[in-house]
Amino acid sequence: MPAGEPLTEAERARLDEAIRTAERHARVEFSVFIGTAEGDPRAFATQLHNSLVAPSRSILVMVDRTARALEIVTGGWVRRTLSDREVELAALHMQQAFAEGDLVGGLVRGVHMLADHARPPQTLHSHAPDA
């Protein structure tokens, strides 16, 4: 899909469903921005992330197809379970799909990967024996 063209209705629905599933799975907020970054892509993505309702519990994925830029910004709470290495791995998978011309497939796969790694570990609660 050439840069600047909007997503089709089917692509938008597929991406929206992936985001909803990821949010339920990881208990964090996901936002995806596809468009032109104003100025430095990283600074622009960080500004977008900071404008979210709950940036600490959010992951923002920004794609600027014109500049061929991908930025992933994570909040402080999210970074407790999602490492930089895991973010880099998701970014590599997304970039590979983008290079093959599959923007939405790359985003869907990347969002799912980020959600899998951002999911807080399950804890077991045990009761101390009554004294």
Compute the CA-based radius of gyration.
Answer: 16 Å
Class derived from helix and strand content: alpha+beta
Strand order of the main beta sheet, please?
1-2-3
How many distinct folded domains? 1
**Averaged pLDDT, please?**
91
Uncertain stretches of 5 or more adjacent residues: none
* Straight-line N-to-C gap: 67 Å
InterPro entries: DUF5130
Protein name: DUF5130 family protein
Organism: Nocardioides oceani
Pfam family, one: DUF5130
Features:
single chain; 131 residues; alpha+beta; Diaminopimelate Epimerase, Chain A, domain 1; 3-stranded mixed β-sheet; 4 helices; 3 strands
Question: Could you explain how this protein is built, in words?
Answer:
InterPro entries: DUF5130. The chain is globular and about 45 Å long. It contains four helices and three strands. It has a single domain (9-118), classed as Diaminopimelate Epimerase, Chain A, domain 1. It has helices at residues 9-26, 41-50, 84-99, 103-118; strands at 29-34, 58-64, 69-74. The longest helix has 18 residues, at 9-26. With 131 residues, the protein is α+β, with helices and mostly antiparallel strands.
